[in-house]
Amino acid sequence: MNKMRRNKKFYFKRPKESPEPIVVEIKRRVHFSEIDIMGIVWFGRYPVFFEEGAEELGRYCGLSYKDFYKARLRAPIVELHIDYLKPLRLNDEFTIRTALTWDEGARLNTEYYLLKHDNSVATSGYTVQLLTDVDSGEVCITSPTLLERCRKRWKAGEFHRPK
Fold first, then answer.
1. pTM
2. Relative orientation angle of helices 145-155 and 46-61, to the nearest 10 degrees
3. Cys bridge to 100: 22, 23, 141, 158, which one at CB 3.0-4.6 A?
4. Which domains are assigned to the chain?
């Protein structure tokens, strides 16, 4: 485990020849049901926030749950990492920024950044998902058509959003 991750700008390497990550953002507010007795977001809510971002990202780039279902694929999370940097409190507005980074394998490397109203990072983290076949349960050795279709659009610049 790299103890310096909290100080890095990104979790996954970005090779120079790869396209920029696909990024989506969701605006959110902390709800009463998400806080603990200290008045801050309970630590177990953060994976749920990450999942909200991942769902939006999947809908945006053709890797939604429905798309995986139709392609008879699953994408179980095999790694989850969270860095808690600043607390989120009741009624705080924040942004979930989700970034899918390029990888040549049959996997999804996704980074998450929860940004406070001043754009400072409250929490960051990542997930790694391996693609598996629904019927056999085996990990895909080569990238399935669903992922290759997304990569083709990605390389063509279809997901580039002006900053």
1. 0.91
2. 80
3. 22
4. 20-155 (3.10.129.10)
